[in-house]
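During the no-cost extension, the postdoctoral fellow (Dr. R.K.) reprocessed legacy sequence entries with the updated structure-token encoder. One reprocessed record is reproduced below for audit purposes.
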Amino acid sequence: MSPTHPKPPRSAPVPQGRARRLLHMGRAVGELAAGAAAEGVARLARGESLALSQLMLTPGNARRLAERLSTMRGAVMKVGQLMSMDGKGVLPPAFAELLSGLRDRAHHMPATQLTEVLEREYGADWHRRFRRFSFEPVAAASIGQVHRAETHEGRVLALKIQYPGVQRSIDSDVANLALLARTPGLVPAALEVAPLLERVRQQLHHETDYRAEARAATAYRALLGDDPVLSVPEVVEEHCSDHILATDFVAGIPVDRLALPGQPQARRDHVALALARLSVREFFEMRLVQTDPNFGNYLFDADTGRVALLDFGATEAVTPERVEQLRELGRGLRDGDAPRIRAAALAAGFVAEDDPPLQTQAVLDMMALAGEPFRERGVYDFGASDLSGRVFDRGRAQVLGEGYARTPPPDLLFLQRKFVGTFMLCSRLQARLDIGALFGAQL
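Re-encoded structure tokens follow.
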């Protein structure tokens, strides 16, 4: 093999070591503060006055933060991805939209750093194991980047190569993020971030264990079985290592590109239905949920109409108790039964008996609002629905106003993230699905 080394765009070495990464984090805080100060001066000159939170969460600061997180990668970038998962959350839409580029457009390792990783994992003669290896990554995210390779037998592989030092930096990165969260105006004062950051820390340790991900992908592939639309690439064990995950390479485009003009409604409905059905099946039947709904983890092949499922580092097993709790909540949402919703929310941990009554009612009201598709008879038109906007407005007003009395259990946040991500995909594709029937079979 005679590899070439084309320089990919947005290439930057992954900063390693606690001191260097803390320096980057300090620069991020300084850039945010400077951006807020400049915005405040400009607003005052125009006779305007804004709260500090509004000055911090500006498009300019979003660009600065996204660039810094993209350069650092690792835990800090993962949190940025969580912040922008659905383009809304508790952030202003413009801020979250700019952060959304973190989903699959991180800076890449330069070829020299990539070669060092390959030599460490495969040995100095690593290039001899492949007929071809492309130094230009297919994708780059928070934990690693993906490269295409071909074996001497002609098998085409996708190699997910972990960034150097990311695993060792998780604990210090999360500690630094906790300090960043104290920056005035950046995070709503009432939002309890410590449990979420701890869950992110645990999840990242799990995601950087590529041996565990290989086992999860293999188990998930077996549980999925022979699906007419969905598939999971096979893990190729002989080319895996502690920091490289090798699978069969699959062609396709991220499914959200089906939202571009010219894509037929039937195709969008076909893909949305398959992935919505998968979310239901994962939770209620497989009890093994891939909790990262990044649209880039679903690749659509227009020639076959099939969707390949990627990235099982965030796979979560679900307990039978949790399944039954959320099944009961689903029944209450379907029937519009307020007492049943309240009892189920208490059992699951969304609310607690000692929460302030007004806060509890606000959470329950938002749940009832989010259950609207369950109560729709027949096809639910995601393209015509303004539900996501209404939920966002209600949630943002609550978080930035009175504030939540508690943060839900961390496992619920990640499961919720999967269901919200599926809803957002259906909205992006403007799909038309009978959601009531889809969930009704499990309730």
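The CA atoms of residues 335 and 375 lie 7 Å apart. The two ends are 56 Å apart (CA to CA). The remaining legacy entries will be reprocessed before the final report is submitted.
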